[in-house]
Design a protein that fits this description.
This protein has a two-stranded antiparallel sheet with strand order 1-2. The chain has one domain. Helices cover 15% and strands 22% of the residues. The longest helix is centred in the last third of the chain and has 7 residues. The protein is an alpha+beta fold. The protein contains 1 helix and 2 strands, in the order E-E-H.
C-alpha cells in the first residue's frame, strides 16, 4: 500500500486535526489505523 503523505521529519509527519491542532503522527502506527483516520466513511469518532 502506498501513502501520499511525507515529511522531512524522520519517522512521522505533522498532521492538522479537524479542530485546528497539529499533532505529530508516528509512521510506525498500524496501517489499518492510518487508513481509518483518513476516512469519514466508517462513521467513527476519533
Amino acid at each position: 500500500m502506498l501513502f501520499g503523505w511525507c515529511s522531512l521529519y524522520l519517522g512521522g509527519i505533522n498532521g492538522v486535526m479537524g479542530d485546528g491542532s497539529v499533532q505529530y503522527i508516528d509512521l510506525a502506527m498500524d496501517k489499518q489505523t492510518w487508513a481509518v483516520m483518513g476516512s469519514i466513511a466508517d462513521g467513527g469518532v476519533y
